[in-house]
Amino acid sequence: MTTLQITLPPMPPALWPNFRSRSHWPRTRAIAKYRAEAMICALQTLGSSRPRAASGTVTLTLCYPNRRNWHDPSNVVGAFKAGLDGFVDAGVFADDDRVQFGPVAQVVRGERPLVVATVDLGPSISVETPMDVQTSATRSR
């Protein structure tokens, strides 16, 4: 089983399930931005490999400079949905429907907040490109 450790920026307040706004736009923009940031961080960690795992486990560690900013662990998973979608965009997972979340840890460490995602990848799947599908269809004729 392959393990990756991806360091991400902190999740903005608009991603948390209990965030309230008069408009849906702050949340929509925050989701798009964090999804792109997660994809970039995952691509930097992966380098040239794209495992496209069929399943896996994501364990989140939220690092804060003090205990003032700690969150309810059950809300962390909902807030990290955009980050998980970014991992799918980067090719870490083929899809996020079989990804499980491990326990959420919150620690006091460093001078700035950040999120460390430890990803345990399951078996990879073979991805057929459109050319492979076309070639196999013409061979069966």
Structure at a glance:
With 141 residues, the chain is of the alpha/beta class. It has helices spanning 25-46, 73-79, 81-90, 130-139; strands at residues 2-8, 56-64, 99-101, 105-108, 114-121.
Question: Which keywords apply here?
Answer:
alpha/beta, five-stranded mixed beta sheet, 60s Ribosomal Protein L30, Chain: A, 4 helices, 5 strands, 141 residues
Q: How would you characterize the overall build of this protein?
A:
This protein has four helices and five strands, in the order βαβααβββα. 35% of the residues lie in helices and 22% in strands.
Order of helices and strands: EHEHHEEEH
In CATH, what is the class? Alpha Beta
The overall pLDDT average reads 85
Q: What integer value in Å does the Rg equal?
A: 17 Å
Q: Could you say what the CATH topology is called?
A: 60s Ribosomal Protein L30, Chain: A
Low-confidence stretches: 128-137
Question: By CATH's scheme, which homologous superfamily applies?
Answer: Holliday junction resolvase RusA
Look at the helices and sheets and give the structural class.
alpha/beta
Share of residues in helices: 25-40%
Largest sheet: 5 strands, mixed
Oligomer: single chain
Amount of beta strand = 15-25%
The total count of strands amounts to 5
SSE layout and pairing:
Blueprint: E1 2-8, H1 25-46, E2 56-64, H2 73-79, H3 81-90, E3 99-101, E4 105-108, E5 114-121, H4 130-139
Parallel strand pairs: 2-3, 2-4
Antiparallel strand pairs: 1-5, 2-5
